Amino acid sequence: MSAPYLFATKAHYRLLQLTDCHLLADPQADYQQIKPYQHLAALLGALKTQAFDALLLTGDLTQDHSLASYQLLADLLKDWPSPVFYLPGNHDEPDLMAQAFAKPPFVAATEVTANGWTWLLLNTKGATPAGEFDQPRLLELATTLQNTRTPVWLFCHHHPLPIGAAIDRHGLQHPEALLSLLTEHPQVKGLAHGHCHSAYQATHQIGYQAGHPAGLTIVGCPATSVQFTLSADWQTEDQGPQGCVWNFAADGSVHWEFIRL
User: Fold this and answer.
1) Where are the alpha helices (H) located in the chain, listed in sequence order?
2) Mean pLDDT in residue range 20-48
3) b/e 98-130 (16+ beta carbons within 10 angstroms → b)
4) Residues in domain Calcineurin-like phosphoesterase (predicted)?
5) If pLDDT is split at 50, 70 and 90, which confidence band does 205 have?
6) Domain 5-260 - what CATH class?
7) CA separation for the pair 172, 186 (Å, rounded)
8) Radius of gyration of the chain from Cα atoms?
9) Separation CA 158–CA 230 (nearest Å)
């Protein structure tokens, strides 16, 4: 993981998660019969005056893999009042992200420490649209978890378990190694992801019977662009731009709310 980013001590932290923006170089261009730039701009405009401690961008920020699409996002967020953390999805180009997001409010840290919590941003980008979390990434995460005593929440792009939709063919491949590692660390309370274009929550309980009866909470964040239907073929719906608001308390409790413009 990167050098940790440390938040000031507070009793509560409020985070905004946005994902799957699918921006193109042309702000007027279409994606799945909507204009993704306008969707995102409208949502950010509505939320900018709210108090957030951080903004988390969890992948597929671009659709056309262009530097210009990232620069559009950077321009939208140039006056955002909180730190902006980001991680790549299958559509993203990490080198271009680093180039476009080199200045504040963007922060490249993948380990974020707060009073009572640690948030870890995982890179699940692979060589195909499906997700990958290979052995070097597993070893790095294992080391971080061994040295972390606070409750932990993970953020990534790809979903680790099927949800009953066409996107499952591009989920995290061979997720057993990651899930097995997480069962060894009861301080890991949950994992949130993008990619599915669908708001949902589930509990993974395999391996959690002893010492962790609650299991691992998994939360899918809806997209700022379009949502995918829970069907075997690729179907999308324009339900307006969406996201997820997180509330983490120093006592280890966490609550979230899906939002829609």
Assistant:
1) 36-47, 67-76, 94-100, 135-146, 176-183
2) 98
3) eebbeeebbbebbbbbbbbbbbbbbbbbbeebb
4) 14-198
5) confident
6) alpha beta
7) 22
8) 17
9) 16
